[in-house]
Design a protein that fits this description.
By secondary structure, the chain is α/β, with parallel strands linked by helices. Helix content is 40%, strand content 14%. The chain has one domain: Alpha-Beta Barrel (TIM Barrel), CATH 3.20.20. An eight-stranded parallel barrel has the order 1-2-3-4-5-6-7-8, surrounded by five helices. Helix 1 crosses helix 2, helix 5 packs across helix 7 and helix 7 crosses helix 9. It is globular. Bound molecules: phosphoenolpyruvate.
């Protein structure tokens, strides 16, 4: 069983590379993995490339972009936490907004996946975030509270030694080139911590930011002690970009 925060490295900040449904070929995946193989980075390639990436990297850690909540059985097309664990995967992104929006993933499904990850010693990276309309309607806190409360509900009464990572990813900032402000993220960190306490959850997660992070804006977020890292999508496919971001994180 992994210890608190699953000791990824000597540094406190966590940088997660979410390759999403990229790249198109195994050869390219191996190239990006080889060039991005630095300590303090968690690489989350598509399932298809997990094994090859696991053989290519020596310093970075391996993460999955999703998992199914059952360990085995008749679930066509799904990938189980046991299969991931046996491949050397240590982390799993769960509840990414692209899955919530495109595949109808609900908070209850997210909760089952979070519990399945923890049961299999995988550190879950729970993604929460509001849409542009929800923000405009003043519903940000309501949405985040709901996603946290339900998403973590199956862990709440279980003894656990493995803390989730919580990624606050405002949906309007993902892939748009317009990140949220560090000030808003700092308020969100405070809100997330308060919500866990008022919900009676004795979890102590790292809280990271995601949404159009690149090597130009990463420092604005990572320099704050309260922001424990970043989840990086588009920029993580460029090895020189992700390496720069990891270097920035190491300074703090
Ligand atoms: C993401 O995939 O979660 C993400 C934050 O993407 P991007 O960095 O491209 O906005």
């Amino acid at each position: 069983m992994c210890g608190i925060y699953d000791k990824i490295s000597s540094m406190d900040k966590i940088i997660i590379a979410n390759w999403k449904m990229n790249p198109a070929s195994l050869k390219e995946a191996e190239k990006i993995a080889k060039e991005s193989d630095v300590e303090d980075l968690i690489i989350c390639p598509p399932f298809l490339f997990l094994e090859a990436v696991s053989k290519t990297i020596h310093k970075a850690k391996l993460g999955a972009q999703d998992l199914f909540w059952e360990d085995k059985g008749a679930y066509t097309g799904e990938v189980s936490p046991v299969e991931l664990k046996n491949l050397g995967v240590k982390y799993a992104i769960i509840g990414h907004s692209e899955r919530r929006q495109n595949l109808g993933e609900t908070d209850k499904i997210v909760a089952k996946k979070i519990a399945a990850a923890v049961d299999n010693d995988l550190t879950p990276i729970l993604c929460v975030g509001e849409t542009k309309d929800e923000r405009a309607a003043g519903k940000t806190e309501e949405i985040i509270k709901r996603e946290l409360k339900i998403g973590l509900s199956l862990l709440a009464n279980q003894p656990h030694t493995l803390n989730p990572i919580i990624a606050y990813e405002p949906i309007w900032a993902i892939g748009t080139g317009t990140p949220d402000t560090p000030e808003n993220m700092l308020n969100m960190v405070k809100f997330i911590k308060e919500t866990l306490v008022t919900s009676g959850y004795t979890l102590n997660p790292k809280i990271i930011y995601g949404g159009s992070v690149n090597s130009q804006n990463a420092e604005e977020f990572l320099k704050h002690e309260e922001i424990n890292g970043a989840l990086v999508g588009g920029a993580s496919l460029k090895s020189e970009e992700i390496i720069k971001i990891v270097k920035i994180a190491k300074q703090y």
